Description:
Distance between the termini: 37 Å
Radius of gyration: 12 Å
Number of domains: 1
Low-confidence stretches: none
Mean pLDDT: 89
Order of helices and strands: HHH
Largest sheet: none
Amino acid sequence: MAIILGGIAGWIAEQIMKSEMGVMMNIILGIVGALVLNAILRMLGVVPPDGWIWQSVIAVIGACLLIWVWRMVRGRTA
């Protein structure tokens, strides 16, 4: 289920950020994005909401954050 939701979240983030990533990268972005944003929220003292809908929203936001960070890093080194 994580792979499917991660792929969907990654695809939505890809559309929002107007990037071309591919299916495998969408899955990775969705899953890692959810993990990263959940960790950030916990460090800030915010308890991430439960449920697959909220976690899907968190995955999309996290994936967008990862794409943004990648663009910032790539832009500085290029």
